[in-house]
Amino acid sequence: MRKGMWVAAAAGAVLLVAGCGSGGGADKGGSSSAGSAATGGAGAGGSGGEKLDAAAVTKELTEAATEAGFTQDASGERVPAELKDCMVSWTADAEKAADPKKSYAGTVSTLSGGGWTEERSFEQSGSQIKTLKKGAWRLQASNHAAGPLKLVMLLATDTGPECAAVIAENNAKNKPSS
To answer: What pLDDT is recorded for position 81?
Structure first.
């Protein structure tokens, strides 16, 4: 449960940093179920105009990271069930990668070649964090493998209005009592 709350809070931060859908087309229709969360207007899809949903994002992240030399850490962060259509978390087993920094760069490069555009980049004390965008999806790709921690994580969030509402509701529900 603690990990689920952390992932939901991280997604809230991604939405906050990304401007929560301030970059154009908004989804004005559709059902209120989380199953139609692949929203974000006309530009929401991947190449070829297809809609980008959590399954497609998972596939893209998995392919890019494994092609770059990562394997997925089975004990990585889990996305709460109610957010599964709005968020994707992929944690690399950086301990098993021959060169985590090179694998991270390869992952980001492959994603960039697949239509993800880099919006921000930050590097400090050996850690790297890049924010990429594809349609309504924002990806925080973080590499903290320079030190003893060896953590490489990809966290993608659908910033469309429907998912923003679902994430905000989940964060409010799981907010610690003070």
So the answer is: 92
